[in-house]
Amino acid sequence: MTSASAQPATLSAEQAKVVLAEVIQAFSAPENAVRMDEARDNACNDMGKMLQFVLPVATQIQQEVIKAYGFSCDGEGVLKFARLVKSYEAQDPEIASLSGKLKALFLPPMTLPPHGPASGGSVAAS
Question: Which parts of the chain span the membrane according to its record (predicted)?
Fold first, then answer.
């Protein structure tokens, strides 16, 4: 195996799709699914704890995949990959969709507080 970290990682849009699909698939691997479930259980739907428990596990899972494509095996590599994907999202709906699926794997769904728009507190534009 050659050392991919010697050169900066750059991916075409097509390559980015492949890597995104591989990262998403990595989250469904049994051992990673267990790791993510444990992290979510520890976080108890608390956003601060999500950052403390879930995000590091999600980052590790991504690192394991993207290192094969020349990204450094650290948080910086994941950030570079995320920036690269973001740069393709506007041009390619498939990349935007895959990116959304990836984020949904480790970001909690946003829920409205109980006193949201249904309670009549919204301001109507006139």
Answer: none
Contacts of 4 (CB under 8 A, 6+ apart): 67, 68, 69, 70
Structure-model confidence comparison of residues 121 and 28, the more confident one: 28
Residue among 92, 90, 68, 70 nearest 80 (CA):
70
Q: Please count the other Cβ atoms lying within 10 Å of the Cβ belonging to residue 71.
A: 24
For residue 97, the model assigns a pLDDT of 95
In the chain, the amino acid numbered 110 is M
What DSSP assignment string belongs to 57-118?
HHHHHHHHHHGGGT--SSHHHHHHHHHHHHHHHTT-HHHHHHHHHHHHHHSPPP---TTSGG
What's the pLDDT tens digit per position in 35-77? 999 999 999 888 888 889 999 999 999 999 999 999 998 889 9
b/e burial code for range 44-62 (CB count within 10 A of at least 16 → b): eeeeeebeebbbebbbebb
Domain boundaries along the sequence of the chain:
13-106
Average pLDDT over residues 107-122: 56
